[in-house]
Known about the structure:
Largest sheet: 6 strands, mixed
Number of strands: 15
CATH architecture of the largest domain: 3-Layer(aba) Sandwich
Distance between the termini: 46 Å
Amino acid sequence: MINIIELNNVKCFPKANFELAPLTVxxxxxSAGKSTIIQCLLLLKxxxxxxxxxxxxxxxxxxxxxxxxxxxxxxxxxxxxFFKITIDECEFSTxxxxxxxxxxxxxLSKKDNQHVFFQNSFHYLSAFRLAPQNSYDVNYDNxxxxxxxxxxxxxxxxxxLGNQPTINRKLARKIWELNNPGxxxxxxxxxxxxNIILKEAMKSISPGFDIEVTPYDNxxxxxxxxxxSGTLKSVRPVNTGFGISYVLPIIIAxxxxxxxxxxxxxxxxxxxxxxxxxxxxxxxAMTSRCNVQVILETHSDHILNGIRVYSKENSIPEGHTIFxxxxxTQSSDLRNIKKITIDSNGELSDVEAGFFDQSEKDLMxxx
Length: 367
């Protein structure tokens, strides 16, 4: 698990430190800089997966994130002589004077990719997830689960892995026992198939949810239809609300993140009803208790409150969840970072102006 991220001269952060926890949430106003931390992790991950940093380069254009040139990565208000990204004790750095501003690769003078973050399971879902389709591409690389950063392979991977035991067996067991009280899954039983536990996980988000997946191997495509308690027959994804297609990749990716892995999701709340957002937040909090580090970026107070409710109802100890609230200062382009935790009663350790308080402000104006 990553505990600390330190940035030096990276985008809007001349110098910044962020604490991470099993469940970490980045929040703040638009363009405050909350995406930068996730982008740094994506740049490191894609550079390692491409060639394990054998070229001593940070690849700014890749499968997880394409940032642009070196000059797009460097802070406009530099402090000190080095560009640096550090995760725990692993440092990736170089002198600012050695940089080539118009290059798509940043040459590093120091690197250390021995952190478990680089070896363990990893899934990332962008805020821009794929809209509902009549059919989906398959992932040609079957060496490991890959749902695509837009969730474009999620249905194909469900088709491929659906009858196999769920990869994160601890999470699958928690979901099963939550939905079937008094019917504990036997310890010595084979793992719960992915297609079964997916439906169990979706019950709270979309009551009556059901899905049928049909592969079309000759066309390298896969299709699916949805059923629910409110429909008499199967419905194509394009004839169903966007929310279901947007949330499915998140649920599938969580269930398929191995022990010790990392799941990063940007704006999990997109196209979801407030109640569904709260239920999804509880699911992601549950995932973080199954030895998966969950990192979120959100603008939703329903995600915040869903995590708070889950923390209270399950007596989650303080420190398990960290909100990093990022705000811009009025006098300069510098950023303020406030660490906020949640105790076992769901109470916040601190609050500040702009921290998910817009509903209260609006209500005050109404009443």
